[in-house]
Amino acid sequence: MKTDANPRDVFDLSGPIHLCGRRLAPGDKQGLMAALAQAIYVAENDRLKGRLGTYALAPKWSMELGYAPVKYIHEEEEEIGPIIGATFQRIDTVEVLEQDANVTPIMVVALRGMMLGNEESIHNDMLTNLQLILHQLHTTARFTKAMELIRDAISEVGHERVSIVGHSLGAALALLAGQMLVSEGILVDTHMFNPPYPAPPVQYIKSRRVKLALNLVGMAVATGVSHLLLDSDKRHGITHAFFSLRRWVPHLYINARDPICSSYIGYFMTRDFMQKVGAGPLAQQAAPVSLQGTIHQYLRDDCKTFHLIPCAHVHVATKRSSKLVRAHGLHQWWWPDLEVDHQEVHMVMDE
């Protein structure tokens, strides 16, 4: 049995130890959710390295924060393949005050993103990422398994006591799951760290005016192409589905130096700018569409544009990491000295 471990897998070396042994405040939930998502990565590393029983490192990532792992889900039906997610249950569930339940929910469903360094994990992750790019994430076995896990948690304790958290590809799964639940009238607290936004990362451009101009041009092109390729009924259906999500306000955690998720900043900034200058109706037309999504929807009727939402709590890390691996990583989100700008975004449709 291999017991060697990357320090980033060891809770005492890399985890949010400042959250241990105390009652968590609302501002601590970000770190808690990120740590539970990290537990999935560590659990998969435990599996790959044969760390079992007392050698396993993953349990400490949840137990030290008051959560016990209840169920892991695997890529394959035999439950011997890569671990892709898990359910965690709060340990002290007997006397949970309402204000505590908002910070530390009874159950948390956590979903991981792509893992590097192992052929089996990379192969499965790449196949799912390909379906994400093709806007077919909802057809994957991984999404089906994630939805089953989420529904089981909701059935057990109620949707008000469940939180969903995902990182990277796992954030895309969480976002899509949240949307599907909204369509059923179920609103679940959802936290998405570094969610993928398939668009050129113009946030790397320093000039704010140039970034805004490029985003406006991109928005205009996407809107024009949607009118060119999609009939009015299909466009109306897309718009209706988009604004039906406005009762749900999930949490997005973005790093401006992360090219995978940073385009969310431009997405919300551009639409906010248009509403402020009196171009709200145009912003409403543009918000539900993306160029890539429109092309896929033209080619295939069963495509779902998963990444566009009308409302969100947007948390942007302002202490930027110079390296991509850190900008896209989970560890930054529980740093005690992390500086984050918080903004609540709401886009409503004129009746």
Automatic annotation (TrEMBL):
<dbReference type="InterPro" id="IPR029058">
    <property type="entry name" value="AB_hydrolase_fold"/>
</dbReference>
<dbReference type="Pfam" id="PF12697">
    <property type="entry name" value="Abhydrolase_6"/>
</dbReference>
<feature type="domain" description="AB hydrolase-1">
    <location>
        <begin position="139"/>
        <end position="214"/>
    </location>
</feature>
<dbReference type="InterPro" id="IPR000073">
    <property type="entry name" value="AB_hydrolase_1"/>
</dbReference>
<protein>
    <recommendedName>
        <fullName>AB hydrolase-1 domain-containing protein</fullName>
    </recommendedName>
</protein>
